[in-house]
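hey m, so remember when u said the tokens were messed up on ur end? i reran from scratch. heres the input so u can diff it against urs
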Amino acid sequence: MSTLTLEASPGLVEDRSVPAPAGARRESASPGLGRATDPEVVPMAKRRQHSAKYKLKILAEIDATPGKTGLILRREGLYSSYLAKWRQWRDEVSMQKKPTSENKQMHNEMAKLKRENARLTLELQKAEGIIELQKKASELLTLMSQNANADG
């Protein structure tokens, strides 16, 4: 059993599926021979994003014409796995609790009460500050009157 080693040779890499004829010479890589001028591949493909309106439009079209699903998917360049995900998304969105007039009234009343609570809390802090100031002023006046009585 023999062991073969492969070494990279500089130059053009040929298609090795068809053996080259004996004595054939390797062609140089030049743009004039039908090769791509820029063989660089984009490192990361850009992810497609579809709007909610587009998803709903496609789902409605597919639901309206059940036998034409494959045709619609090919026309739009979509995968069938998208349909399952989009239907699940549509069901989740439709299941979310939509605000009713009763909920809106409760929400509005709650917001009003929170605003009033914040206003009253601020008023209470101001009143407590004034009371503290009055206590200190009273103590200061008491000390000053005691000092005046002791001196005079």
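this time it looks ok to me. Confidence is low (pLDDT under 50) at residues 5-17. if urs says something different then somethings off w ur setup not the seq
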